[in-house]
Amino acid sequence: MCSSSWKTMAVALLLIELWLTIESSLAHPDKIVKLPGQPPRLSFQQFSGYVTVDYKKHKALFYYFVESETDPASKPLVLWLNGGPGCSSLGVGAFSENGPFRPNGEFLVKNDYSWNREANMLYLETPIGVGFSYSTNTSSYEAVDDEITGTGICILQEKAMQDSDIFHASFCIPGFGVTPCLQVLSSPNVFRSLQLGNPVLEFATDFNSRAEYFWSHGLISDSTYKMFTSVCNYSRYVSEYYRDSVSPSCSKVMSQVSRETSKFVDKYDVTLDVCISSVLSQSMAINPQQVSERLDVCVEDKIVNYLNRKDVQKALHARLVGVRRWTVCSNILDYQLLNLEMPTISIVGSLIKSGIPVLVYSGDQDSVIPLTGSRSLVSRLAKELELETTVPYRVWFEGKQVGGWTQVYGNILSFATIRGASHEAPFSQPERSLMLFKSFLEGKPLPEVF
After folding, report:
1. Which of 74, 91, 95 lies closest to 83, judged by CA?
2. What is the distance, to the nearest Å, from the Cα of residue 70 to the centroid of all Cα atoms in its chain?
3. Which residue ranges traverse the bilayer (predicted)?
């Protein structure tokens, strides 16, 4: 998250407290009476609708808010953003990762490992032009970058502080051109902690760790690995691709890599069949050579069909403006993809210096943003901040099985893997992801025994 709304696939902002005004919210116009096909007898309330962030240009961000299953007034508020660039936190985060339901035909199936078991969850479709978020001025979709995205969320944060009838709390996102938000975030009275899942923290390190991951998992040959690290590495290829200047040498290397890895292997989880993943359309920036491929034919299709139903949109208080259909990832945004090259690991360091705990976690089956790059960047940051290791690298448990591995620095910077998890860890390993989330939320170490 701390890089931008799209570089970081799994982002949570944890606030000190949530003051829910239950009495007034019962009659709030954004309250969802019932989603079509939802299970009966829910123990929590749901809200969704719009917050206008620019009245002149008629810009409105769509949100979906789910109360905690138990004692919501005492539970923290978590803001969740998905990446892309320009992919939906509603469709991906809420309906395929850690929200209370998953679409299955005409019905919604209860997610037994929803994160609203532990917190009040707020899913935001950002920037403008993503999902149900819109502007009536189409120029708002042009030359969108991290700073514009961040500024919009900061405006939303201010409105939440001033006039929200649903949640009386403030929130903001760092790292979009951090200046608008960093001062607010530095206050521990506003912002408690930050969780980053499979994030792009530093362009070259994260992208170039892909070659070793492919090779070590048997996806490419020795000779291709050598070319992929010496003739043209992945960061060079992506940089050339978005400058419309792919060199013959890079084109040759990437063609060979693509042939060997095969389009029938899900790069977001190298152990899964291609039909199972629900997030492959988020590969626009980090897998540019696969933009035209539609590899997901299962969960994502169910989500798209469900959210394009008129009765569902009515129940969500949602509307389509300037587009005919809701899509998982926006096809109307002109996002400045070269923002990808801007390092954000230093922003994470600034937040840690201000006293905000940070967790970086990786699904260990993700070859797109491999754990090896994230782990080395977290270790390097710890050295720069002169943080001592407080929890040596060790396994952690969920139930009676190893949930992954973890290391903690200075009791404020943590790294963890989720064993068997994809890029979208809460989708592929929901129980282990919930344990990781719960432990971090409570400020407790991950279980070292079962």
Report:
1. 91
2. 25
3. none
Amino acid present at 108? L
Preceding peptide of 85 cis, ω within 30°? yes
15 pLDDT above the threshold of 50: no
**Could you give the 3-state DSSP secondary structure of residue 63?**
strand
CA distance 89 to 92: 5
Pairwise CA distance, residues 222 & 187, whole Å: 50
Give me 361's structure tokens: 């976690």
For residues 37 and 106, the answer to whether their CB atoms sit within 8 Å is: yes
Contacts of 27 (CB under 8 A, 6+ apart): none
Residues 273 and 313 occupy one common structural domain: no
Question: Are both 46 and 163 inside the same structural domain?
Answer: yes
Structural domain that includes position 274: 204-293
Radius of gyration (C-alpha) of the chain in whole angstroms: 21
The type of residue at 411 is: N
**Which residue's structure tokens are 């013959």?**
248
Q: The CATH number of the domain where 414 resides is what?
A: 3.40.50.11320
Q: Cα(335)–Cα(330) distance, rounded to whole angstroms?
A: 10
φ, ψ of residue 195 to 5 degrees: the values are -125, 130
pLDDT at 162 over 80: no
Q: How many CB atoms lie within 10 A of CB 350?
A: 16
Domain shared by 14 and 134, yes or no: yes
Q: Are residues 310 and 262 in the same domain?
A: no
236 domain residue, yes or no: yes
User: Which segment, 224-233, 267-276, 315-324, is predicted with the most confidence on average?
Assistant: 224-233
Tokens of 188: 């521990």
